[in-house]
Amino acid sequence: MRPGCFLRLLSILLLLNSPALAQTPLPEAPSHTRHAAHVDSGEKHNDVAVFVGGTSSEERQRFTLGIDYERRLHKYLGVVGLIDVAFGNGTSAVAGAGLGIHPAGELRILLAPAAEITDHETVFVFRTGASYAIHIKNDLALAPTINFDVNREHTAVVYGFSLVKRF
User: In the chain, which end has fewer C-beta atoms inside a 10 angstrom radius, N or C?
Assistant: First the structure.
């Protein structure tokens, strides 16, 4: 991964996690339209997730690790930063930032422009995906996840599970 790309992504994540932004209350929907998980005023607005799974592209399967951060701006919308690394023959990384759309309950739709960085080149990809958080304990959730990294030449499928910590 190029140092410039990593530093830009890191600065975005740090800005989104600044104390001033983290203490900003989210606008609330009218009480009759709120989902049960969003009723109490102590709702958590930040998610950090560690991803473990695989990447399938061009008839190759690779082990993949990743991390992402989401700051919820509203009940239905969040800003997401992500980094995934696919290991194996030809290690590559995907880094990007985009939107997390939450249309219902714990379902998240991800839309994120990103850069796929390999040993030989850096190409633009657009990541679309979905995950569903299943609460396992207080502020922890397990989220089955599937993403599609699309560019002009190929589509990679990234699948697995994320362990999500809410704060």
Answer: C
